[in-house]
Prior knowledge:
This protein is an alpha+beta fold. The protein contains eight helices and four strands; from the N terminus they run αααααβαβββαα. It folds into two domains: 3-81; 86-177, no CATH class. The chain has helices at residues 3-21, 27-34, 40-48, 62-81, 86-91, 108-119, 162-166, 174-177; strands spanning 106-107, 139-144, 149-154, 159-160. Strands 1, 2, 3 and 4 form a four-stranded antiparallel sheet that branches.
Amino acid sequence: MKAHEKANFLTLAGHVKNIVKDNGLAWRQKYELIFSGDVSKPLIALGEKMGGLTWVDPGTTYEEDVKAFASAVEEMAEAVRKIPHIPRMLDSIHQECGDDPPEGWCRWKDLAPILSRAFGPKRHEDWWNWVKNPTCKYINVRIDMRTGVCRLEDGDGNHITVEQLAKQEGGEYASSLS
């Protein structure tokens, strides 16, 4: 689920919650507002991107129908809230470590552009491909949250540099492609 879809889903879920809580509306009015094309259809469509928004429609009263749908929407909203937004998480890491990181470590500000280019929302799929750099199919990133310095290891636990991570077939480096 993309960031804007996540935001749209949560906004609509909040709208459903507010409608249900509105004591000034009868259950039929709540039903008509929620099951209008403006609320339930986009929620269901966005829910499909997470495996489907499902609920049991009791088909008994407006109140039961609204409560069943609202419960399913809130359950999915809780799951959507748990989806990390990687670029935002990465941006929040302290990025200052001075000019010289310790031996075998790199600065976060040198690593972040590579990760963003490879995995961020504006990623260059034609640029990053582990087949072009099989040593880095699996990597471990250890970040000192106090200083923002990082240590990179390949999947076998061997130390690698930012340049080795960025290297792609043909000797290209991320820093030269920015």
